[in-house]
Design brief:
Shape: elongated
Number of domains: 2
CATH superfamily of the largest domain: Ribonuclease Inhibitor
Distance between the termini: 68 Å
Strand content: 15-25%
Structural class: mainly beta
Largest sheet: 9 strands, mixed
Number of helices: 1
Length: about 325
Amino acid sequence: MSVSVDSENGIYDSRNNCNAIIETSTNTLIYGCKNTTIPNSVTSVGDSAFSGCTGLTSITIPNSVTSIGDYAFYGCTGLTNATIGSGVTSIGSWAFYGCTGLTSITIPNSVTSIGASTFKSCTGITSITIPDSVTSIGSQAFSGCTGLTSITIPDRVTNIGQQAFEGCENLTYNSYNNAKYLGNSTNPYVVLVSATSTSITSCTIKNSCKVIYGSAFKGCTSLTSITIPNSVTSIGYSAFQSCTGLTSITIPNSVTSIGTGAFYGCTGLATVNVKATSVPTGGNNMFYNCSSSLKIYVPTASESAYKAASGWSTYSSQIQGKSF
């Protein structure tokens, strides 16, 4: 198959006989095929550029490219080799979804974010290293990667979306005090993924943990004691949902975001101490269906800000200032 654009076309081109269509003004590759060679003058691979191209087996993304669009290689089941250049800073949502032929991929140290479902259902990938540059991993980013046995997550990651590792049943975890973690060789405890069992009664989270993953302690009805260290920056959606045995919890000053339904259904939860002077981003229903006597204590100087903030204002009558 060959793709070409008439040389008189002022909007699109097919420079260097690349077998692709490029938007001239933006240097964005908008359509490619199994025989495409991406020129080193291209700066972005557009949304759905190779989507459904099952005949594509190998692609080299040059260093000139800074972004890979949403659905860019969606469903390219024949793709076995993809080289991502060192200029790429973002990989879009669903970019490599369903690329079942991929067995490995190297994410360059220039990438700062991995989008939602980016590598979802890439069942052939067995290991992946997320570079130190990445701070955000989107929801379902690696969901359904059933062949994945190891993943390296850097300390700089501060946000991990819902179900990012859902269905990765063969992943190897690091355990500490009733919880399972993912991380790196220097810090194996970056992300607390889940409790070791829903029957645990206590957990002291490792003091180098950055993220409490969504649903990490969901349904741990016997949990009565939890210690969150000052290293944690993010508490995920439904992280403590239905932990009916919890009566109090202290959220340290380091936390900057609390996900939707984080303490949903914690019917025994009566005391929450939130030490952050800057109001953490709050999701909907954070404390929905907690104890009727719930009190949320916040720094006195920040009381008004908490009561007015999105996600927190619902609980304004339960928020009280306190000197920590």
